[in-house]
Amino acid sequence: MNEIQILKYNGGEGGWSKNVDIGTFEGQKVVIQRLRPIPRSGDHDVRLNMFLKNLLMSDQLDHPSLVKMFGYCFRHTKAEAGYEQTSYFGDVSVVYEYGMGLDLNALNLTIAERLNHAADLSSLLSYLHYSPLGSLADFDIKPEHFKMLNGKIKLIDLDHMNNVEPTCSLTLSTSHKNFKPCPFNISCQELTEIEMRYTKCQTVKCDLGVCRGTNVKYNLQKMNIFFQVLLKPKFFPDALKYSLSRLLTQLNKTDIGVDGLEKEIRNITLAYTNLKT
């Protein structure tokens, strides 16, 4: 940490829970995120939880389209003046790759670059769905949380990710005081044996189910804004416009899964390659 040369303090977008410094390490530009709570502030525990969740998610997830964490530093502060009565025990700094702000509409992309970016994002969606932590939904997907780094679009800020999907009733098709219908017209499905262990269903007859598949549908819906720009038919040869329009319609209706999305983008990329030969 001491080898990082700070170029600018508070020079990045830190949001609600952190401050962001810009620096260099071994010739590479990096981002240093810091959470230093205000003594006797009432929200520092919440901010700490969000900050540490982002750290842990970055440590456990590994994909080329997720910003890379280089390391972190934890400094004990319990005995320092102003912190004696707080439940917060330390000042945490985390070092990440540095990426540039991204405005897809302003980028001058070739057809190959558009297809590559679309393939990368579809691969990310697939990874989140099949992740080692279960099917993950990122409830804070927005353009500001994507950066351009070495020609690749990368997602930052993972503190709103969750692997819990909505519960539902297996015996009711309409909403009532305890359950709502599953979103995206998903059918209520039975709990697995592992999921059952965390309910009271072991000892009593239970109609509790899960809206399995909600997380991946949510990510597809939120990421659609990128596909609509990257795969806009007007940028492509006439021979590809029908396939692109059909795919974008499926995305608008969340009527396609991550496997189907990856396959369609591969097929369109292959068709484009064949057109050039």
TrEMBL record:
UniProt GO BP: skeletal system development
Protein EC: 2.7.10.2
Record key words, sorted: Transferase
Gene Ontology MF terms in the entry: non-membrane spanning protein tyrosine kinase activity
Signal sequence residues: none
Taxonomic superkingdom: Eukaryota
Cellular-component GO terms for this entry: extracellular region
Matches recorded under PANTHER family: PROTEIN KINASE DOMAIN-CONTAINING PROTEIN
Protein name: PKDCC
Organism: Mytilus edulis
